[in-house]
Amino acid sequence: MSESSRIKDLIQWLLKTKKLIRMYPENNPMYIKALDDMYSRFEEAFSISGDITLQIRQYEILYHDEQVYHNPEKTDNLALFLFKDGIRELRFLKGLDKEELKDFLKIISLDEKELVDDDIVTLLWERDFQHIKYVVDESVLTEDEEYEFKATESLMENPTSTDELLRAYRDAMDSKGVEAVEVAPVSEEDLKALMKELEKDSEPKLPKLIYILSEILRTVTSPLATVTSPLATVTSPLATVTSPPTVTSPLGQESDKKDFEEFTSLVKSLLLYSVETGDFESAVRIIKLIKELMNSDMSGDSKTQLKKIIEYAGSQTVIKAMGEVIDRIDIEEDPVKEYIQNLDRNAIEPLIDLLGELKNMTARKLIIDGLASLGRRDMQSLLKGLTDERWYVVRNIVYILRLIGDKRAVEYLLKTIRHPDMRVRREVIKTLGEIKALQAVPILKDYLHDPEPQIRITTVRALGSLHTEGARRLLIQHINTKEFLMRGIEEKKEYFEVLSSWKDQETIELLIKILKRNTLFHRAKNYENRACAAYALGIVGSTLTSLSGEILKLLKKYADSKNPLLREYVKNAIIRIEASYGRN
Amino acid sequence: MEETKKSIEIINNLSIMLRTSQVHDINNTAVLNLVEKVTGLINDLLREERILQIDLVGEFFYANDTRLKYSIEHLLNFDYLSRELKKRNVGTIIFKERIEPDEMKRFVKAFVAAGFARDPLQYMLNSLKDLRTISVDKLKRVKEGEALDMRKVVKKTYFNAVSFSKGLMNKIKSKEAVNIKKAKRIVESMVDLILEEEQLFLGMTAIKDYDEYTYHHSVNVSVLSIALGQRLGLSKKALNELGLAALFHDIGKVGVPLEILNKPSPFTEEEWLIMKKHPQWGVKALLMLKRPDPLLIRSAIVAFEHHLHYNYSGYPRVTNKAEQDLYSRIVTIADQYDAMTSSRVYARVPLPSDKALSILIERSGTQVDPLLLKFFINMVGVYPIGSLVLLNTNELGIVYQSNPLFPDRPRVRIIMDETGKRTDFTVDLAEKDSEGRFLRTITKTLDYTKYRINLAEYLM
Questions:
Q1: How many CB pairs lie under 8 A apart between chains A and B?
Q2: CB contact under 8 A, A228 and B317
Q3: Which of A169, A185, A266 is nearest residue B284 as measured by Cβ atoms?
Q4: Which of A127, A258, B399, B430 could cross-link B409 (Cys pair, CB 3.0–4.6 Å)?
Q5: How many CA atoms are closer than 13 Å to the CA of A337, on its beta-carbon side?
Q6: How many Å lie between the alpha carbon of A428 and the closest alpha carbon of chain B?
Q7: Which helix (H) or strand (E) holds A83?
Q8: Would you call A578 helix, strand, or coil by DSSP?
Q9: Is A399:A427 a contact under the CB 8 Å cutoff?
């Protein structure tokens, strides 16, 4: 194989590896293997050819003047990719290590969209490769071809005259001259102090700029505000910063107003940047500073401008950006929570929209908690979410309403209870119970007959939560129906457990009655009812000490029942009551 | 990468060993321990590399042709070794095969004794002649031709930057898009050249008769800031950020009406008020360039703080006295120095550099950061480039390049000979005669601003 064929092959491998490393994450075995293979090929090439120097042309790459790559296309063209930013020669030196190769591959794998802020040369330059060198055509950097010539010509217009030099020479011989500045050498202490400075310098810079912008907003006046005069403080050292003198704005009110508007728009762009980069601490800082400014002595017009920043923080644009960040990466939750809590009511609608888009559970939880916090301030905006087309969003809103626990939501929940999706209906029923929507009892009655067992069970629990006389009656009535008799044991158990929470005489008597009841028909089903009654009595007996002895005595009568189900439930109930004795 | 770390470790310990052996006898335990240590470190590397060639080129060390970038903690030891090697005219040390401690001891003895020899290099060559594993070679000097070519490259890069700076201001004024990628590339070139040819670049900033002060000033502040940043041990990437922030520091002046900016007489109070708004307008101009990113954020901070002063006595007035950014403090020094030493519309006659440095020293701790100023003064030297000096030979010259190791011994372009005749040649004040005495020494500096000396003729 000729040398150029070998390099040709190497470039083809480079292209193949480039694609692979774009496709897989760094820890993927395919990625690792591709990199290892590429590295071995370079090692092999170095051992045969030594350092490899490639000439970069627009559509081709040359090695020792022989073409080793050609691509006439404008896209996905390695030669053009390097050429367009000015790279004319690329040199791989013996000793190239795997890290360098990986970083180089990462750089050449970037697409145009990823190269918004830096070009290839900058990326190569910043990485400062030890074993990859390049030659760049810097002519692209020249703005004005004539500038250097003209500037030099102008500088040389007045050459130094011999007379002037003679005058200087004579003065030098005669005069005393100027004292040179003493240079104190840099000491170990200086270096230590410098090290500290450099350490501090690694801290994030955005918080600083946020403070600067708030300082500017404080001083840039809107029509009615005052402007701090820097001169005033110079001429009067006693003047304090906290009470700046009022002077007329030098550029006029219109100019200041425009300035103020422009700065508020910059604050908005920084806010969006903070959110996009996941720096929610800075985003919170911005909102807090703006709120602080709004509380200061400022014209109404300025306050309106500042309020727009807070509104922007909760706008569709920013919330969408937030969604992209929290859905994609593991993020510290507290700053996100704090950010949402500091938003204005206008954020509710975008947050509801976002709720429907998020895939990550943690992210959804964050938004739900956030909406619960904001919803307390504006229930009406939150209630709009109940009409969302996405069932899961509606379910989340119902859940949020439950977290808020405001009874004003009942009216809307009672409408949502007829939602076509069972999961929403179930959430509504649960919520009605937990927020004690007493007026819901008659409506819940229907759901005891729902074809879905989960709905029925949730309804029973909701009635238990409501704990009204009406709820109890409803449950007792239902337990005595044939429909109930035919239900599954688990569902029946739920009913009896809920019923046991009343602990009144009538309920206890009913339970005893059911425990004792013998029937000719549906004996197996009746044993289920009896077993559940024993279960409920076990709960009552373990919590109501005054009746526990009596209940225990009764239960023991059935401890040896021939029916294994009843026997098991009775035994468990006895254990439960006796255990509670031990506790008491 | 591993080899680079090992090489840095070797040079660091080599320096400590040689310094210790200047004070103690070769058989002193401290020296012997260091001899053992350095020998071990070198042998460890030689197992892999077979040869270790340490070269001193300009201000940089290379190990087997790889330039070593070292952190600030190694700065003093690297500087020491560099100085001692230069003193002996040694530019290369080669270690090969396996070194025995006794061989290292011979090298140390030769190195120490060479310091007192009339011809130190020759002494070392003779002493190590029969040693197979350690050898030294002469210090390489940059060829004049190469220097001339570099001068052209530096000049081109400098004017590219000025032209870009002018275009930038105009584009911002006319609300056109600004090419930040290009700005980065320009500053990258400047950083590269400052790392390699700092003196040539500083020479460009010393020329003060440029027509368009504002644009040249931005570039000069950028060059001086990068050069200072380099002294502080900032990484290449950080130097690029610093250079860009410095280039943009006065960008807010686009908001100042031209009649104020170009006013030859002192400003009225109202004009000052407008002028003093340029830091905040700088923030605005920068953040409006494009979507924020770390670079623009840093630049905006610098634009806001560069007149704030170390003790906040400057402008704009702030209620929150958060510590000023490191880059702001660097740019403040570079800005004040360049402004004082330049001819501006409202201060036609610039101050000579030594006078400007004296003023900066007066402002140390009030307007400027004392620690950074110390590094800055060490950088520009006792005799900054462009200083007019009289030598003990009665020759008159212009400081052409400063000497970081011997601040009082710069390279000087002689413009008048000892008889007062016009001439033009360059001398190095560090040069000695065969007796070991310096050939030339500065006896006097003069205020060059009193004479119409066109520095461009000599420095460009």
A1: 272
A2: yes
A3: A266
A4: B430
A5: 10
A6: 45
A7: helix A78-83
A8: helix
A9: yes
Q: In angstroms, how far apart are the furthest CA atoms of chain A?
A: 138
Test A159 with B457 for CB contact under 8 angstroms: yes
Whether residues B283 and A198 touch (CB distance < 8 A) is answered with no
Q: Any idea which residue has 């897989």 for tokens? A: A24
Q: Please report, for residues A76, A86, A122, A127, B293, the alpha-carbon distance to residue A110 in angstroms, rounded to integers and kept in the order given.
A: 11, 17, 13, 15, 19
Asked if B326 lies within 8 A of A182 by C-beta distance, the reply is: no
Read off the pTM.
0.78
Residue B58 near residue B91, CB atoms below 8 Å: no
Give the max Cα distance, chain B. 79
Percent of chain A with pLDDT over 90: 59
Reading the block at residue B301, the tokens are: 């901070």
How far apart CA A226 and CA A233 sit, in angstroms, is 15
B209-246: pLDDT as tens digits: 666 888 899 999 999 999 999 999 999 999 999 999 99
Tell me the CA distances in angstroms from B193 to B150, B158, B381, one per residue in order: 9, 10, 19
Given CB atoms, is B65 within the 8 Å cutoff of chain A? Answer: no
> Is residue A92 over pLDDT 90?
yes
Residue A222 has pLDDT above 80, yes or no: no
- Indicate yes or no: CB of A118 within 8 angstroms of CB of B184: yes
pLDDT of B321 reads 82
Q: Residue A369 class from Cβ within 10 Å (0-12 exposed, 13-18 middle, 19+ buried)? A: middle
Place of tokens 């270096």: A191
Tokens describing residue A278: 């996941």
Torsion B378-B379-B381-B384 (CA) sign: negative
Mutant choice from B284, B333, B387, B418 vs A, greatest count of A C-beta within 10 A? B284
Q: Residue A138 is which amino acid?
A: E
DSSP A179: P
* Residues in A touching B407 (Cβ below 8 Å): 183
Cβ contact A363:A355 at 8 Å: no
Q: What Å distances lie between residue A200 and A124, A149, A551, B279, B325, CA to CA? A: 27, 44, 73, 24, 10
Span B22-75, pLDDT tens digits: 888 888 898 999 999 999 999 999 988 788 999 887 667 888 877 776 666 777
CA-nearest residue of chain B to A121? Answer: B185
Mean pLDDT of chain A: 87
Which residues does chain B have within 8 Å of residue A215's beta carbon, measured at their own beta carbons? Answer: 316, 318-320
- Judged by a CB distance cut-off of 8 A, whether residue B315 touches chain A is yes
pLDDT tens for A142-154 read 777 788 888 888 8
Q: How far is CA B267 from CA A235, B95, B213, B350, in A?
A: 15, 66, 18, 19
For helices B294-305 and B326-340, what crossing angle results, to 10°? 50
**Residues of A with Cβ-Cβ distance to B156 under 8 angstroms:** 138, 148
Q: Annotate B150-205 with DSSP letters as a single string.
A: HHHHHHHHHHHHHHHHHHHHHHHHTT----HHHHHHHHHHHHHHHHHHHHHHHHHH
Average pLDDT score over residue span A174-196: 81
pLDDT digits (tens, 9 = 90+) for A348-373: 999 999 999 999 899 999 999 999 99
- What the block records as the tokens of A577 is 């009551």
Q: E-assigned strands of B190-284? A: none
CB contact B296 to A (< 8 Å):
no
The pLDDT value given to residue A566: 94
**Burial (CB count within 10 angstroms: exposed 0-12, middle 13-18, buried 19+), residue A247:** middle
Q: Where are the alpha helices (DSSP H) in B306-442?
A: 326-340, 353-362, 370-380
Can you say whether the dihedral through the CA atoms of B372, B373, B378, B380 is positive or negative? Answer: positive
Residues in chain A: 584
